[in-house]
Specification:
The complex is a heterodimer.
Chain A: E1 3-5, E2 10-14, E3 19-21, E4 24-26, E5 31-38, E6 45-49, E7 60-61, E8 72-74, E9 83-91, E10 99-100, E11 104-109
Parallel strand pairs in A: 2-11
Antiparallel strand pairs in A: 1-4, 3-8, 5-6, 5-9, 7-8, 9-10, 9-11
Chain B: E1 5-7, E2 10-13, E3 19-24, E4 31-37, E5 44-50, E6 53-56, E7 65-68, E8 75-79, E9 88-95, H1 97-102, E10 106-107, E11 111-115
Classes of the chains: A mainly beta, B mainly beta.
């Protein structure tokens, strides 16, 4: 079964500290993985996709097929990173449906 | 409009009543999605439209839920005989033909439904 697991409901770190938001997935084929973010009082929006292999707002995420993980990382957290982060998966045979994790609330303490 | 618009932003209704939630996607976006999000959960897929037709309605929980998109733009999610368990945030998202393949969805702010 397709599944996305974000084991941490809440993650709290100090400003300037490294951040790692965990995402594990279960999928039998080749998935596409995404991170979406929702800042306070804003709508859900795409942060980054594994295919583009880009760094957005200092965040990166590497798809590890061996460990079936797609953890989101940032070396130095900033207060404006506080938000709800969702990991999502799309199977290669599905060009529209995303399977979502439950989300991790990231709080950056000053 | 500049983004996906959803109305109403909040809806409180009584058990057994009929509810309609509206989504106005980004102009030109052919793909439209409805999701339901309960507290502490990620979005749960309900239905996907490509143009006017429902390409996949496998996420609709039961026959009390129905959605239409008659002109390929605005969509309405309809819930009959509402139950307390229907209380959730209902999210709409749209995507262009090219963006659909990148997986980028553009979300509205959601309609929060509370069934008393």
């Amino acid at each position: 079964a397709q599944r996305v697991t974000q084991p941490e409901k809440l993650l709290s770190v100090f400003k300037g500290a490294p951040v790692e938001l965990k995402c594990n997935y279960s999928y039998s084929g080749s998935p596409e993985l995404f991170w979406y973010v929702q800042y306070s009082r804003q709508r859900l929006q795409l942060l980054l996709r594994h295919i583009s292999r880009e760094s957005i707002k200092g965040f990166t995420a590497d798809l590890n097929k061996g460990e079936t993980s797609f953890h989101l990382k940032k070396p130095f957290a900033q207060e404006e990173d506080s938000a709800m982060y969702y990991c999502a998966l799309r199977g290669m045979d599905s060009n529209y449906q995303l399977i979502w994790g439950a989300g991790t609330k990231l709080i950056i303490k000053p | 409009g500049a983004g996906v618009s959803q109305t109403p932003s909040n809806k409180v209704t009584e058990k057994g009543k009929y509810v309609e939630l509206r989504c106005d996607p980004i102009s030109g976006h052919t793909a439209l999605y409805w999701y339901r999000q309960s507290l502490g959960q990620g979005p749960e897929f309900l239905i996907y439209f490509q143009g006017t037709g429902a390409a996949d309605d496998s996420g609709l929980p039961n026959d009390r839920f129905f959605a239409v998109r008659p002109e390929g733009s605005v969509s309405t999610l309809k819930i009959q005989r509402t139950e307390r368990g229907d209380s959730a945030m209902y999210l709409c998202a749209s995507s262009s033909l090219t963006r659909k393949n990148t997986g980028e969805l553009f979300f509205g702010e959601g309609s929060r439904l509370t069934v008393l």
